[in-house]
Each structure stands twice: as C-alpha cells, then as structure tokens.
C-alpha cells in the first residue's frame, strides 16, 4: 500500500472559458501528516480541496488518492473512495430539514451503519464538540460557530483517513478556533491525515505544522516548524 | 430504522400529484381487469353452450300427426352420430321462458306453440348439420333447425376484441401510473440536486440515494393503490348489487368472484412493486447521468 494519501503531479485546472486556477501543482501528502493550505484570497485553496474530495476534475496532470487514480475509476466506485474522506465545507452544507444529530449521523448511515448506532456515535461526538444541548434542533437556528462545529462533527464522525477542512475557523472567534485546532490535532494523533485550508494567520502562527502555500498557480511546501504560541 | 429518509421527498411538491394519479389509475385498472375476466368467463361458458347445443322447432300440426312427427324426429336424432341427447322442451319450461320474455302468457294460445327439441351434441364426434337438416326437411318442410354456431363465430370475434381492448386498457392504465412515477422521480431528482450532491460528497452511493426514492415511492404507491383498489371494489359491489336487482345475477359464477377478489387484493401490491422498480431504475439512471 502507498504511504501517500494523495499525490498530485503537474495538476492544473481551468474552468470552461474561464481563468486558469492552477498551472502545474505537484505535491504529495504523506499518510498521517497535517498540513495547512494557505495563500491569498482567490488563489485556489477551495478549488484544490474540491479536487481532493473529487468535486472537481483536474483539466490536466495526474491525481492519485489512496493509491488510486479516480479519473480512471468507474463512477460507481468513487463513493467508496469518498467514504475514506471527511470534508468540512466552507459553507457547511448542512441539511436544514434534518436535526443536528441526524446531520452528524448521516455519513454513518450512508456507510450502512444502523441508525440507532449511528445516532449514538453522533451524540458522543456532538458532546465532544460542545453541542450536547443542540442534538435535536434544526441547523437553521444555530449560530455560524455552532454550524461550523456540526459540520466538523459530521466530517469526522466516520474517523476518515483524510480530513479536508475549508476555512473551518472562518466563523468562530480565536478561542474556539484554537479549540478546533486542538480537535484536529487530536484526530491527527489518532492517525487521520489533515489538510486545513485557512488564511487565519493566528492559527498558522500557533501551529507547528507545515504549510502548503498556493502562490501564482503553484504550490510551495514548507517543512514542519514550531511557531511561538 | 436503517432505511430512514435522508431526502425531503415527503414535502416534495412534484410528488404530491402522484398518489392521486396512481389511485385513479389503479381504480380504473381494477375495474377494467375485472370486466375483462367477466367477459372472458361469461364467453367461455356461453361458447361451450352454443357449440354443444342446437335447437329444432317442430310446428304444431293436427294433434296426432304432431306427436308422430315429434317421435320420428326424436328417432332420427337418436340415430344420428354426434348427438348425445335430444329431448323436447317441456311445456311448463316453455311457458316460463315466454313469461320471462313477454310478461304474461294468459292471452296466448299455448297448445298451438311449436315444439322445441333441445339437442345436446357430443364434443368428441362432429355432426353433419347439413345432412341432418336435409333429413328433417324431408320429414316436414316446416321443421326448423337452429344452429347457433353460424353466427357464434362473429359474436365471439367481437367478444375477443372486447377482451383484447379491456386488457390493453388495463395495461395502458398501469403504464400511465408507471410513467407518472418516472416523471415524479425525475422532477424530484432535479429539485433535490443540491442535497444529492451533498450526499454524494459524504460518500453516498447511487444505490443508497436510489433506495430513498424507491422506499418513498413504494409507500406512496401502497397507500394510493390500496385506496384505488378499495374504491374499485366498492364500485364493483355497487354494480353487482344493481345487476342482481335487475335480474342479471345468473351471469356471475363463483370462479369470477375469486378472480375479482384476486384483482382487488393483488393490484395494490403489484402496482406498488412495479412503481418501486421504476423509481429505482429512473433514479439510478438520473444519478448516473
């Protein structure tokens, strides 16, 4: 089995009759690593994450996830690749007609886990992210920060091999942002590979993890270093 | 519950009309199907009677000659190959037959009515009707042989056409319900595109999403088609009641009631099953494209 969770080789993307998002992006994500994906606004952080969660096809170059080439896979096999991922979307993508607990247990049900057991796992996780009093409410009445935590709980409830988070601290204050960072680090210690797209400088400064910096259509990968806390 | 609904299909405006259409189609389909069985069943027994019986009419002659002629005719019939039994229709039966047709026979001169001989044919050996008729005419030119088979073929063709027509109508009605299901699912797929995208992104397979549609359609189909079948049963019961009151009850046989019962019982399950299958197929096709 490959030691790399993701391998991108000269990957680029251009929207139809639109701008070029990346030119030639090449990097490998080792299993069990923790990266921050950063760069100026509009640099393509979200698009790169979208590519990693198979929401966007590369226009050119090659992409391998968990040792497999998703572009050469049968469409019916892609969900099984996606089941190894957990994604925190920038706009949360919570289902407003489902209660918080059902939103969080949904990825488990999708994987065939019995509903009662799925709810039990979801409840434990919601307690862990501090939302024990919001289990049976609908997401529409939650604050941005609470929605963020629900989205995170939904992404990690399946203990994914790779967690992709798009601006997961965008709607929370610094204190909660740090708590969330610790939560991601805990998950990483348990073996989950984590990539967080953010431009939160405070978060970047307080974390020793390496950076993937998108700049002018390419990626610069930094080494791990301890920053002052 | 494993198969809970993750798509908000119950609140779907597009699918609200579906139970009404399905209920109506099952109602019409059941009645059509029951009518087909009725025509088929009635034709079958009627056909058997017509192909195995002929009637001979002997005119009333001065009393002695009439009896002699009747005896000669019966003698001839008993000797003719292909005839199982021949007997004169009793006077009382003839009277009751006439009463049912014209109301009262008090003003009629019954003894002057012709004698009717009911001839039962064997199914194994064919009868030479033309030869028999020639022999009868030799005995008396006024003797009439009524072979119902002459016009039976045309009537049977008409009845068979009716059966084909009602069967086709039943199938068309079922097809309409299935097409409505297909359109409802396709519309739902479009309405819930964003939710389906989210489900895909969190790892849902097409089969998982299609199952949501098939379960929803199965529930809707069962409720709507059961109501449709129940209403059809009530209509059927009403028609039976009316027919019985106007003296048509003889037309219904026990086998027909069993068939009708099967139609009303099985229609909801069969319709729902086909709808579920169609919903799954449509959803999978829509999700794949």
Structural features, described:
The complex is a heterodimer of chains A (229) and B (289). In chain A, 32% of the residues lie in helices and 24% in strands. Chain A has 229 residues and is α/β, with parallel strands linked by helices. Chain A folds into two domains: 1-84 and 161-229, 3-Layer(aba) Sandwich (Rossmann fold); 93-159. Chain A has a six-stranded mixed β-sheet, with helices on both faces. In chain A, a hairpin with a 5-residue loop joins strand 1 and strand 2. In chain A, helix 3 (100-110) crosses helix 4. Chain A is globular and about 45 Å long. Chain B is of the alpha+beta class. Chain B has eight helices and four strands, in the order αβαβαβαβαααα. Chain B is elongated. The longest helix of chain B has 43 residues, at 149-191. Chain B is 70% helix and 8% strand. In chain B, strands 2-3-1-4 form a four-stranded antiparallel β-sheet. Chain B has two domains: 9-47 and 152-288, no CATH class; 60-142, no CATH class. Classes of the chains: A alpha/beta (229), B alpha+beta (289).
Topology:
The complex is a heterodimer of chains A (229) and B (289).
Chain A: E1 4-14, E2 20-30, E3 34-38, H1 45-52, E4 60-65, H2 78-82, E5 85-88, H3 100-110, H4 115-128, H5 144-156, E6 162-166, H6 174-189, E7 193-197, H7 201-206, E8 211-215, E9 218-221
Parallel strand pairs in A: 3-7, 3-8, 5-6, 6-7
Antiparallel strand pairs in A: 1-2, 1-4, 8-9
Helix pairs in contact in A: 3-4, 3-5
Chain B: H1 17-51, E1 53-58, H2 63-79, E2 83-88, H3 91-102, E3 115-121, H4 129-139, E4 144-146, H5 149-191, H6 193-201, H7 206-245, H8 254-288
Antiparallel strand pairs in B: 1-3, 1-4, 2-3
Helix pairs in contact in B: 1-5, 1-7, 1-8, 2-4, 5-8, 7-8
């Amino acid at each position: 089995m490959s030691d790399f969770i993701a391998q991108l080789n000269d990957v680029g993307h251009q929207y139809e009759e639109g701008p070029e998002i990346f030119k030639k992006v090449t990097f490998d994500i080792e299993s069990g690593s923790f990266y921050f994906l950063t760069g100026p606004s509009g640099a393509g952080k979200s698009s790169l994450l979208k590519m990693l969660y198979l929401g966007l096809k590369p226009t050119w170059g090659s992409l391998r996830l968990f040792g497999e080439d998703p572009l050469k896979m049968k469409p019916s096999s892609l969900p099984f690749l996606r089941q190894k991922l957990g994604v925190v979307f920038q706009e949360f993508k919570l289902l407003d007609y489902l209660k918080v607990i059902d939103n969080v247990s949904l990825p488990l049900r999708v994987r065939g886990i019995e509903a009662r057991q799925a709810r039990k796992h979801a409840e434990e996780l919601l307690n862990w992210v501090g939302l024990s009093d919001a289990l049976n409410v609908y997401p529409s009445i939650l604050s941005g920060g609470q929605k963020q935590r629900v989205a995170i709980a939904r992404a990690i409830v399946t203990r994914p091999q790779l967690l992709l988070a798009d601006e997961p601290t965008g709607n929370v204050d610094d204190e909660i942002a740090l708590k969330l960072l610790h939560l991601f680090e805990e998950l990483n210690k348990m073996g989950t590979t984590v990539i967080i797209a953010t431009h939160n400088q405070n978060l970047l400064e307080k974390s020793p993890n390496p950076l993937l910096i998108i700049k002018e259509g390419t990626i610069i990968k930094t080494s791990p270093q301890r920053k002052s806390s | 519950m494993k198969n809970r609904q993750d798509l908000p299909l119950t609140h779907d405006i597009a699918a609200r009309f579906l139970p009404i259409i399905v209920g109506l189609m099952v109602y019409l389909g059941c009645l059509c199907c029951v009518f087909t069985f009725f025509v088929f069943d009635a034709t079958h027994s009627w056909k058997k009677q017509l192909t195995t019986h002929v009637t001979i009419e002997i005119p009333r002659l001065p009393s002695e000659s009439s009896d002699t002629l009747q005896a000669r005719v019966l003698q001839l019939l008993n000797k003719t190959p292909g005839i199982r039994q021949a007997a004169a229709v009793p006077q009382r039966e003839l009277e009751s037959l006439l009463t049912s047709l014209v109301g009262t026979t008090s003003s009629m001169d019954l003894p002057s009515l012709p004698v009717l001989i009911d001839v039962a044919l064997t199914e194994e050996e064919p009868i030479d009707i033309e030869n028999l008729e020639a022999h009868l005419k030799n005995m008396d030119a006024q003797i009439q042989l009524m072979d119902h088979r002459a016009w039976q073929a045309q009537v049977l063709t008409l009845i068979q056409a009716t059966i084909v027509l009602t069967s086709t109508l039943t199938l068309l009605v079922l097809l309409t319900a299935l097409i409505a299901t297909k359109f409802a699912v396709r519309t739902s797929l479009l309405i819930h595109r964003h939710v389906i995208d989210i489900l895909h992104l969190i790892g849902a397979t097409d089969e998982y999403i299609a199952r949501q549609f098939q379960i929803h359609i199965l529930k809707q189909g069962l409720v709507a088609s059961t109501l449709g079948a129940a209403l059809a049963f009530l209509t059927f019961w009403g028609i039976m009641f009316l027919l019985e009151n106007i003296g048509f009850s003889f037309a219904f046989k026990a086998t027909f009631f069993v068939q009708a019962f099967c139609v009303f019982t099985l229609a909801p399950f069969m319709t729902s099953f086909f709808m579920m299958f169609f919903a799954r197929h449509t959803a999978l096709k829509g999700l794949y494209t």
